[in-house]
Amino acid sequence: MKSWISFLMPEDEYKEKKMLYFLAEGAVVLVLFLGMILIINHFIALDTEFMLFAGIAVFLLYTLARYIMSGMEYAEIATKKQYKREIKALISNSASFAMIYALLYLIYTIISNNASWYEFLVMGINVGVISFLFNLISLKRSYKKNKELL
Q1: Judging by beta carbons within 10 Å of its beta carbon (0-12, 13-18, 19+), is residue 23 exposed, middle or buried?
Q2: 86: number of CA atoms within 13 Å, CB side?
Q3: Using an 8 Å Cβ cutoff, are 102 and 127 in contact?
Q4: pLDDT for 62-114, tens place per residue?
Q5: The whole model's pTM is what?
Q6: HEC sequence for 95-137
Q7: pLDDT confidence of residue 28
Q8: Sign of dihedral through CA atoms 26, 27, 28, 30?
Q9: d(CA 56, CA 3)
């Protein structure tokens, strides 16, 4: 079945089905979270912007965590040689992503007159490390899962 969200979905039917499950689970978690926030808001006055941001963050982080932990990203990695090659590629990709992010962040801070070398370096390094760790966890899960299937 095709819908407006189809362009975001992978071509592989198995991956598409799993992603739909993750998105549906994320929506249920979001509804539960918003219900909890609604109840808490009767006792403690919460900022509307905070509630909206927290709801979006809960949905995105849940969906991302489920996708990373599923081990379906690297379906072709089953041997130790492929695994080591992919780790080298991850290091390269994460470093490239961190440099591009740092450059864009630097441009943003210069434009907004909030330039700080400390923030620039910390943000660039943090983004690179987080990107690498997310991909490494996904790779390890995929490798372990694919090795068991062989």
Answers
A1: middle
A2: 19
A3: yes
A4: 999 999 998 888 888 888 999 999 999 999 999 999 999 988 888 888 887 77
A5: 0.78
A6: HHHHHHHHHHHHHHHHHCCCCCHHHHHHHHHHHHHHHHHHHHH
A7: 97
A8: positive
A9: 22
pLDDT in tens, 107-145: 888 887 776 777 778 888 999 999 999 999 999 999 998
What lies within 8 Å, CB to CB, of 138 at 6+ separation is 67, 68, 71, 73, 74
Question: How many Å is the maximal CA-CA distance in the chain?
Answer: 57
Across 22-34, average pLDDT: 95
The Cα 78–Cα 146 span in angstroms is 5
What amino acid occupies position 43? Answer: F
CB 111 within 8 A of CB 77: no
What's the CA gap between 55 and 121, in Å, rounded? Answer: 29
Tell me which amino acid residue 59 is: F
Contact, 132 vs 94, CB < 8 A? Answer: yes
Query: Comparing 7 with 29, which gets the higher pLDDT?
Result: 29
